[in-house]
């Protein structure tokens, strides 16, 4: 199994099994794992960086509040897939972007386990902390390093804060 598409599918499947006890379900078409919340969803997402003979995997986490996304974005098919805030694993841990390399089938289980450990130790607590609207609003209002980390685009962050200020949180 040296076909990169097959390796990616295997990685998503293996990680999906590991993440089930944490309440995440695979969304294979988006290389994501989601856990529904009363207000939207929590997501772990894999980004693949292709090279000629292999690929790297980058882990991201995101929180979506449906009401916020519907309030700040125009009607579109893409709107239902957007998150309110998010972060890349390496940036969250202060190490800069972290990548896991997959070159062949032997790498799949090792990388899935390493990503699961990152999810369990760091990304899931991040998601749970920011699953509260008030916590997100307070963080974004500060306009500091944390707010930039979880919502790096100034205009978008300002739109989220402005909309959330109207929600009587």
Summarize this, please?
It contains seven helices and six strands; from the N terminus they run αββββαβαβαααα. The chain has 169 residues and is an alpha+beta fold. Strands 1, 2, 3, 4, 5 and 6 form a six-stranded antiparallel beta sheet that branches.
Molecular structure report:
With 169 residues, the chain is an alpha+beta fold. It contains 7 helices and 6 strands, in the order H-E-E-E-E-H-E-H-E-H-H-H-H. It has helices at residues 4-19, 66-72, 89-92, 105-129, 133-142, 145-150, 154-165, and strands at residues 25-27, 32-37, 40-50, 55-65, 85-88, 100-102. Strands 1, 2, 3, 4, 5 and 6 form a 6-stranded antiparallel β-sheet that branches. Strand 3 and strand 4 form a beta hairpin. Helix 2 (66-72) crosses helix 7 (154-165). The longest helix is centred in the last third of the chain and has 25 residues, at 105-129. The chain is elongated and about 50 Å long. The N and C termini lie far apart (51 Å). The model has no long low-confidence stretch (mean pLDDT 95).
């Amino acid at each position: 199994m040296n076909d990169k598409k097959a390796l990616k599918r295997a990685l998503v499947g293996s990680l999906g099994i590991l993440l089930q006890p944490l309440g995440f379900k695979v969304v294979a078409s988006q290389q994501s794992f989601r856990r529904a919340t009363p207000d939207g969803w929590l997501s772990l997402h894999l980004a693949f960086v292709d090279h000629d003979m292999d690929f790297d995997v980058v882990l991201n986490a995101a929180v979506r509040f449906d009401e916020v996304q519907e309030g700040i974005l125009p009607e579109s098919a893409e709107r239902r897939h957007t998150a309110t805030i998010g972060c890349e694993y390496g940036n969250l841990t202060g190490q800069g972007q972290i990548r896991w390399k997959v070159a062949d089938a032997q790498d799949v289980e090792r990388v899935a386990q390493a990503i699961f450990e990152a999810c369990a130790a760091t990304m899931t607590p991040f998601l749970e902390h920011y699953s509260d609207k008030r916590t997100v609003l307070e963080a974004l209002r500060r306009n500091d390093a944390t707010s930039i980390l979880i919502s790096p685009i100034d205009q978008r962050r300002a739109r989220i804060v402005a909309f959330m200020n109207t929600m009587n949180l």
